[in-house]
Fold this sequence. Notes:
By secondary structure, this protein is mostly beta strands. It contains two helices and 15 strands. It is rod-shaped, with a radius of gyration of 34 Å.
Amino acid sequence: MAISARVVFSLACVVSTHGTRVEANGGGVAVTVNETTGTYVLSVDGATWLTGGRAPLNLTVLNHTTTTGTDGHGSFTTLTLDWGVSAGGTVALETDVKAYSDTELILFTQRWPNGMSHPPPPPPSPPPPTTPAELCSQVLNGTDQTGGAMLAKVPFTSDADCCAACIRNSSCDAWVVSAPPDPNRECYLIRGHRGTRLVADRNMGIVRGP
């Protein structure tokens, strides 16, 4: 449900929006609105009377438009600011500053088109990718993989070299090496591993998948 709030200033008025000036009876109340930040200064006879417009709920101005029209109070010019979380996103708040030329009246109106629920925060930044050095330092000693099939067997030189061979093979998601007391050191590249189990003469690591 949309919700709105309104503030009325009733005096002869002038509205200035970044150099665009609309006068009502040449009066002494002026409102200057910054279309980028939404801040405003309300002055009376040239003296600042009220300032405001701090961005609500961490919103930013997405768009601004100026329109003219006529209603029961007379002819008017309106500056509308659309507020949201990010460019191109949903409008969470609308602010109107309306000045009448036929009567001594300024209207400030704010509308929450989707109610006053807080807009969702922007999504968190994705974590940085894990480097090969970090992956290959995560050795599971005394552990073997389960559920996977052997892609290849390569000569063993070190756990780190076996891990690097797995990273270079896009089909490999885990590696296993035979460890002491197994006298035959081998490096196995694995595809489709699903879990792990404790095995005394195996070391392994995971580079992709669960």
